[in-house]
Amino acid sequence: MIRLLRLELRRNIMPLLLPVVAVLLWISPYGRSLAGIAVWTRRGAVLQDALQGFGPVAAGAAAWTGSREHRARMRDLMASTARGSWARTLPAWAATALWGLGFLAVAVGVLYGLTAASASLGHPLWWPVAVAAAALLAFFSGGYAIGALLPGRFVAPLTAIGAFMLLVVAATLAQARHPAALAGPVGAVSDPYRPLFFRTGHAVPEVQVIFAAGLAVLALGALALPTGAGGSAVRSAGAVLAATGAGMAATALWLAGTGHIARDSGAVDIPLLRSPGEGRPVAYTPVCEGGAIQVCVHPAFTTVLDESAAALRPVTGQLAGVPGVPGRVEERMLPGGPRVTGGALYVPAPFGAFDSGHPLTSAVARKMRADAACGLLYGSWNVTGQARWAVALGVVAAAGDPDTPVLPGAARPDASVTAAARRFAALAPAARRQWLAAHLTALRAGRLALTDLP
Amino acid sequence: MTLIPSLRLVRLHLASRRAVPALSAICCVGCVPLLPIPRPSGPLGVVLPLAVAAGAAAVVGTSTASPIGEAERVTGRHLPALRTGTAVLLLAAATAILAAAAAHRAPAGGSLTLLRALAGLAGITLLTAAFLSPHRCWAPPLAYTILCGRALERSWTSLWFWPIRAPTTRPPRASPPCFSYAGWRPPRSALHLSDPTRNTARERCSSMPTTPASMRCRPDPRFTVTARLPAGKATETVSKATQRSIPQK
C-alpha cells in the first residue's frame, strides 16, 4: 500500500496545479497580509480566506483523480484485481490530499515564520490552521467522491466551479450575517482584531472543524457504498462512516444555527459552546508615544505608533495643556464613537490602514485628526451647535486640513460656520489656546453662539 | 467526397463530443442563479454570474476532447469544420440558456455582462484546450474568475479584468487572449480609468464579507485622488503614489 501511495504521489496532478494555487494564494488576503502589520490574529484569519482560491482547485484536482479509472477505460480491468475499489483508490485520494496539505503546511510555515519574526505580541494561533486543513480535506474528499461516483469528462470542471460557487454562497450567507455561515470556513463575520481587545472563545472554529471533518468523512464513506467497493465489511464500514460524517455535518449546522452574530460589533455567540468570560475586555498595557497629549495603541500595533502619533500631532499639539482636554488619546476597537474615560480619549483605530502595509494616506490621517479633534474638544462626535462646529472645524483647519468637508457625524457646514472656522484657524496658536482655555467649558455646555467666537 | 459533412457524420461527431451531456451540464450551471439562494450584493453579486459563465465555458472547452485521439485526424477533411461547428453550436446553446436564465432573474450587471463574460471565458477555455489539453482547460478560466473576484474586491480597474467592468464604461474591443495574440497593448489611459463616478470601491468593499470589517473601505492608493495639502503643512506621512498625485502649491 505504501508503494502504491508513493507511485500516486509521483504521478499526481496536484504538482502541476500548485503554481496556479501559488498565484491564487499570492493574490488572496494571504499575500496582502504579508505586506501589512504582523498581528497573529490577522495572519491566522487569512489562512481561511486563502481557501477561496485553493479550495475549488483542490476539489477539481481530486475529481480529476477520482474519475481516472473511468477516463482511462480501466474500470473493467481494475475490477478483476484482488482489492476492492475503495482500498484500491484510497491511495490516490491520500496522495492528492497529501500534496495539498503539504502545500498548506509550507504556506503556514512561511506565514507564521514571517509573523514570528516581526510580531510584537502574541503567539501562533492553531485553530485557523486546523480549520483550513479540515476544509481542505473536505474539498479533496468531496471532489474525489464526486469524481469516482459520477465519472465523466465534465466532472472535474463542474466540481471545481461548483466548489467555487458554494464558497460564494457561503460568503453571501456571511454577508447577510446568517448563522449558517458560521459553519463555512470562509467569509469571516467577526473582525480578526477583535480577540486583541475582547475575549473570544473557540466556538466558531470548533463548529467549522466539525462541519468540514463531517463532510470529509461523509465523502470517504460514500466511496465505500457501491457494489464493487469491497466486501460486506467494507461496505458496512462505509455506511457507518457516511452516517457519522452526515451526523457531524448536521450537528455543526445545528450548532451554527443556534448562534447569534451581533450586527454592530460582529461578536459571535454560540450559547452551547460559550466559554466563560467570553466578550469581556482583555486587559493590556498600551504602548504610548510621549508628548503633551500621549498617543497610545495596543502593544500589537507598536510598529505603527510613531506613524499614528505623527498623524495626530497637528491636533494634539494645539490642544495640549488646555484645561479639560484629555491628556491621552488611545486608539482601540470601539463599536461606537469615541469616549472619554479616566482622562483618556478612546478613538477607533484605523485597522484597515494599518493592515495595508502602506504609510497612512492623507485621507486616513485627515479622518484621524478630525476624529481626535472632536473627541478631545467635546468627548464625543456630537458637534451640534454652530459654535461647537466652527471651533472643531477651525482646529482641524489649523492642523493643516482646510479642505476637510465634514466632521464625523456632521453635515457639510454652511457659509457662516466655515467663515467662523477660518477666522478661528487664522488666530495665532497661543491666542487660540488661550481662548479655548477660557471658553471650552462654555463651549461644551452649548452656551456660546457663533458670534462669540473670535 | 462532398464538402458538406453528412447529417449522420455530424450526429456521430456530436455524440463523440458528448454534446447532449454538455447541454445538460450547461443547463444545470445556468439554473444556479435561479436557485432560491440569497441574492448577494457588492462584489459577490458580480462574482456569482461570473462563476456561472466560467462553468458554462468550461463545459464548452471540455467538450472539445476527442475520445478517439490521433486516429480521428486521418478519417477525412471534415474534422476542422465539425470541431468548429460543435464549439460554436455549444457556445450558442450556452448563450441562449444563460440569456433565458438571465431573463428570468437578471444577474448583477445585467444580461449583457453575463453573455460578454461567457464569450470571453469560452475564448480563454478553448485556447487553453487547444494549447494545453481539453481535460485540463478548466483550471486557467477558474483561476482567472477567482482573480477577477479579487480584482473586484481590490477595485482594480485594469482592462485585463474586463469581465467585472460595467457595461456602461468603454467596452473592451476584444478579449485578453486576442490582445496577447495580436501583440496589442491597451493604452495606459485605458488600463487605469480614474472616472470618479465609477469609483464605487467604498460601496463595494463595504459589503464584501470575505474581508473583515477592519479591512473594508480601503481604496487602493494608486487609484485614489487625495485632497490637496497646503505647502509646508504636510506633517503626515503620505504614500509615494499619493504624493505624485498631489499638486504641490
Short overview:
Chain A contains 19 helices and seven strands. Chain A has 454 residues and is mainly alpha-helical. Chain B has 249 residues and is mainly α.
List keywords for this structure.
heterodimer; A: 454 residues; mainly alpha; two-stranded antiparallel sheet; 5% strand; B: mainly alpha; disordered C terminus
Task: Give an overview in words.
The complex is a heterodimer of chains A (454) and B (249). Chain A has helices at residues 2-10, 14-27, 29-35, 40-49, 51-66, 68-71, 75-78, 85-118, 127-149, 155-175, 194-197, 203-223, 232-257, 305-319, 351-356, 362-378, 386-398, 415-426, 429-445; strands spanning 260-261, 268-269, 287-289, 294-297, 328-332, 339-341, 344-348. In chain A, helix 1 packs across helix 8 (85-118), helix 8 (85-118) runs antiparallel to helix 9 (127-149) and helix 17 (386-398) packs across helix 18. Chain A is mainly α. Chain A is built from 19 helices and seven strands. The longest helix of chain A is centred in the first third of the chain and has 34 residues, at 85-118. Chain A has a five-stranded mixed β-sheet with strand order 3-4-5-7-6, covered by helices on one side. The radius of gyration of chain A is 29 Å and the shape is elongated. Chain B starts with 6 loop residues before the first helix and ends with a helix. Chain B has ten helices and no strands. By secondary structure, chain B is mainly α. The model of chain B is unreliable at 171-249 (pLDDT under 50). At the A-B interface, helix 2, helix 5, helix 10, helix 14 and helix 15 of A face helix 2, helix 3 and helix 6 of B.
Rg over alpha carbons of chain B: 22 Å
Most strands sheet of chain A: 5 strands, mixed
Give the low-confidence spans of chain A. none
Mean pLDDT across every amino acid position of chain B: 67
Query: Helix count of chain B, per DSSP?
Result: 10
Largest interface: A-B, 70 and 68 residues
- Tell me about the largest β-sheet of chain B: none
Distance between the termini of chain A: 88 Å
Instruction: Give the low-confidence spans of chain B.
Output: 171-249
Strand residue percentage of chain A: 5-15%
